[in-house]
Amino acid sequence: MASQRRISFFYFMIVLVLFCISLFTSSYHENVLDYKSGFSGACERYMDTFKDYMFQELDVFDPLALFSTTTFDVDSYGAKGDGKKDDTKAFKNAWKKACSSKTSSIFRVSKNKKYLVSPIKFEGPCKASVTMMISGTILASTKESKYKKDEKHWLRIDEVDNLVIQGGGVIDGNGDFWWNQSCKVDKSLALTLSKCTSLTLDNLTVQNAQQIHLSFDTCENVVASNIQVTAPEHSPNTDGIHVTHTQKIKISDSIIGTGDDCISIVNGSTNVQATGITCGPGHGISIGSLGEKNTEAHVSDIKVDGATLTGTTNGVRIKTWQGGSGDATKIIFQNINMNNVSNPIIIDQSYCDQDEPCKEQASAVEIKDVTYKNISGTSADKDAIIFKCSKSHPCQGVVLQDINLTTINDDQAKATCNNVQITYIGSVTPQCPKNNVQDSQIFDA
Fold first, then answer.
1. How far apart are the C-alpha atoms of 97 and 388, rounded to whole Å?
2. By the number of CB atoms within 10 A of the CB, which of 101, 144, 380, 408 ranks highest?
3. Where are the beta strands (DSSP E) in 321-394?
């Protein structure tokens, strides 16, 4: 079919050239002064007709239909896919060929096979666009000696633009081997995408990561959809999707259940959208932590629109360390359903994830312009809303609109609020005690 379309394309181009030449000649003889405008206008109209023809023929203009695409199957480079033999070398060789191809290429991992691999860096830039068609299972090696060169990455894709990852396959970090050793030792991230632009992920499962399952680090223009992330609730530090220093990313229609944050958004990330998220078990959807070890952090333009959280230890959370600086601003959480969730709505500017107590400090990452809208459901705790904000840098511009949270026993929930400026819109339950709120305002919907 593709070859027939290419033939039609080239025949059409020949006809176009002949037509324009003849039109040029006739226009010139009729009026030598107007031949240019007549020629240009006719050819432009003819090209419009040509484009309409091609779009109708191909449904959408797909360059892969006009130019050849080469497939590089890991099996062709010696991979066995039996879950026992280390297939790392075959993966590296297949990637090297795919990335160096001058035309669009497909790096293929075959269905119904399990490929055991050690740490790999899929390095770019590539000469043309690449599709990673992962239909089988990629399984992490548990030989610790293989991780000595880079203990923090297992599968890393670095500086590859116009990349598509799809295929319905599974990336399995073999995490239980690592979890049983220690709960606070840095382990590898299962899949890290670093410095990638125009990146698409669709229909992929990432499971049982050593630590973070899927990390976007310093990427731009990312679309991730139909992602399933799974790990046991007891698995330590197994964030589902982690976003850092990344701009313009949309995560949609994904199911995430792990032992840590379903989604974590940290320093340097802007224009982040998450829609259609199912979260649980886990620690909820978090912005932060930010400002650890007196560092400066900035996040902005974050929207979580449409999510269901079930049995998580937090709902939608913003967490910052004392002593940090910077800001978290222009944040929207809306259209969210909570089912038996602890801390459904929480801002914590005194976050302290360490054994020894954190000392009190005056500086803080400022939190402002945060909207919670159309959030309902049940809280596992009496306190359904917690605003634990800094005395020196109170939370500003917090809006609660159409909130209805009760306890799992259908009792009235409470709100605990310190150093926060709140605006209420519509019906809001529960509400902060008035003596703990700065300049609160109430508006009927």
1. 53
2. 101
3. 325-341, 345-348, 366-379, 383-388
Q: In 10 A of CB 185, how many CB atoms? A: 11
Backbone dihedral region for residue 22 (phi beyond 0: left; psi -120 to 50: alpha; all else: beta)? alpha
Both structure tokens of 73: 């199957």
Token pair, residue 433, equals: 């005690």
DSSP string, 67-121: S--EEEEGGGGT---EEEEE-HHHHHHHHHHHHH-SS-EEEEE-TT-EEEE--EE
| Number of residues that this document lists for the chain | 445
Backbone angles phi, psi at 392, to 5 degrees: -80, -25
Residue type at 434 in one-letter notation? K
Query: What pLDDT is recorded for position 22?
Result: 46
CB distance 264 to 238 below 8 Å: no
Q: Are 309 and 346 in contact (CB under 8 A)?
A: no
Quick check: bond before 394 cis, omega within 30? no
Question: Catalytic residues, which ones?
Answer: 260, 283
Q: Classify strands 170-172 and 120-123 as parallel, antiparallel or unpaired.
A: unpaired
Q: Report yes or no: 67 and 104 within 8 Å, Cβ to Cβ.
A: yes
Greater pLDDT, 151 or 356:
356
pLDDT, the chain, mean: 86
CB 366 within 8 A of CB 393: yes
Token digits of residue 200: 């698409």
Rounded to whole angstroms, the Cα distance separating 133 from 136 reads: 9
Contact call for residues 39 and 27 (beta carbons, < 8 A): yes
CA 109/CA 413 separation, integer angstroms: 51
Condensed to tens digits (0 to 9), the pLDDT of residues 268-284 reads: 999 999 999 999 999 99
Query: Which residue in the block uniquely carries the two structure tokens 């091609």?
Result: 54
d(CA 59, CA 31): 40
pLDDT above 90 coverage of the chain, percent? 74
Rounded CA gap, 163 and 184, in Å? Answer: 33
What would the mean pLDDT of 399-420 be, rounded to a whole number? 95
Point out which residues pair with 415 in neighbouring strands: 385
pTM exceeds 0.70, yes or no: yes
Residue indicated by tokens 């089988």: 136
C-alpha span between 441 and 227 (Å, rounded): 40
From residue 75, alpha-carbon distances to 99, 109, 152 in Å are 17, 8, 27
Who contacts 333 (Cβ-Cβ below 8 Å, separation ≥6)? 285, 304, 316, 345, 370, 371, 372, 373, 375
Which H/E stretch holds residue 95? Answer: helix 88-100
